[in-house]
Structure formats: C-alpha cells, structure tokens
Amino acid sequence: MNLQAQVFFNRLPKDYQALLNDLLGEPTFIDLLTSLASQEAQARELETPIFPIHSDVFKALFLTPVRNIRVILIGQDPYHTPGLAHGLAFSIPHEIPMQSKLFPSSLRNINKALILDGFRALSHGNLSHWANQGVLLLNTCLTVPMGMPHAHRNWGWAQLTDILLNRIAMRLPHLVWLLWGSAAQQKESIANNCQGHLVLKASHPSGLGVYQTKTPFLSKGGMIACGHFKKTNTWLIQQNLDPIRW
Q: How many CB atoms are closer than 10 A to CB 59?
C-alpha cells in the first residue's frame, strides 16, 4: 500500500480497519483510498473551507464502535453552513441554541417526532448521546465545501461507506436501519442482503420533504409521526437488546 493510502486508512478506528483488512491487497480498494486522500488534501488547501474539520471526518466511527452498533441512521453529506457539521449525521454542536436560525429544520422535525413517540424532547442538537449508545450516525458522503451541498458526491465517499455498511450488515445481526429520504433508501439493498435486520423508511425530515411520499416522517399538521423511535426500541427489546435512551 502506498503511503498516502496508508495514512488515510490509519485515520479509521482500529475496529473499522479490521472490517476492511482483507481488502488491503486489492488494487481497486487502494486506488479508492488514495483518491479520497488526494482529493481531500487538495480541497483543504483551497480558500473555501471544508466541513467537518479534518479530525472529525470519521467521528461517527469513533463514537460508535463496531461491537456497539444497534441502529444505523443514514445521512447524506455534512451540513454546509459554517459551525454545524461535526462528523455525525443530522447532529450539530451542543452550543447552538434550538431557537437559533442556524438550528436545522431536520433536527426540529426529529424533535417533534421524538415527542410524538412519547420520548423526552431534545435539549440541544448534539446527538452524541445516541452515538454513544450504538446509533451509528453515518453520512454517505463525509465532507462538503462551505455553501456547496453534494459537491463531493463523486469523490468516492459513497463507495467507502457502502463497503463499511456491507461489512457491518454481514457481521452484526438484528440491526435497525433508519432510512429517511430517497438517498438513504438506496441503502436498503445492503440491509436486505442479510437476514434478521429491521428496515424503517420515511421521507427525509428536513423542510417540506418531511411530509412527502407515502411514508411521511411527519403528517401534515405535525400531529402524527412515523413512529421510528418507538418501533426501534420495541425491536431491540424483542432481540434482548437494550433500548435507546433517545
């Protein structure tokens, strides 16, 4: 393996590296690592900031070790507004107040759904407490330039995260997959490749999309939620696993 690929690979936690070790002899995988490392390094040298910061790119993996994963919540790419992205899908730093205009609509709607499911309301937008309990908050694309959503979509991040998701699905039984929005639902086939997983689908919780599709995240009027948080815990209990303290 070349040095650039090795340095990039070493940024992953050891347990996630172990999921991928058998691929280190495959040229196509090494090319993927090299390409991602090169593109990220070049992008961070430009004037436009890249989110999240370098040290937070793989934060979701560090906060949720492989052995602890019980739920997989798929996001798209990080928030492209300064101060929001910190390496966890849907999550934002603790210090951003809920009444702030910066507080994302997706998190506001997630909070509404939690309340409708009978759980305590969020007091802030940092979802690290979910990650620490085994909810893998993984974006499929792990970087974004400021003000340019999806600009890194073609870098190869999705290839890497798909490989990780496939390996996790094969290794761990009885996972819950929360697939919100059409982009996340493209990962349903990964979950369905293995038996014993629960897949829950709904529209994306942001903006007007929250009410769209036959399976809305929230009903129009916001009085009925998709029930995913309650359904997740019911499933986990049925599998003799601890429920999530949402």
A: 20
Q: Is residue 10 part of a domain?
A: no
**pLDDT tens-digit readout, 37-95:** 999 999 999 999 999 999 999 999 999 999 999 999 999 999 999 999 999 999 999 99
Instruction: Please indicate whether residue 77 is annotated as part of the active site.
Output: yes
Q: Please state whether beta strands 71-75 and 176-180 pair in parallel, antiparallel, or not at all (unpaired).
A: parallel
Q: Is residue 62 part of a domain?
A: yes
Dihedrals phi, psi of 223, to nearest 5 degrees: -100, -10
Count the domains in the chain: 1
Cα–Cα distance, 246 to 244 (Å, whole number): 6
Q: What is this structure's pTM?
A: 0.97
- Specify the pLDDT at position 211: 85
Buried b / exposed e along 197-209 (16+ C-beta atoms within 10 A): bbbbbbbbbbeeb
Catalytic member of 77, 117, 162, 242: 77
User: Could you give the count of Cα atoms lying within 13 Å of 225 in the half-sphere of its Cβ?
Assistant: 20
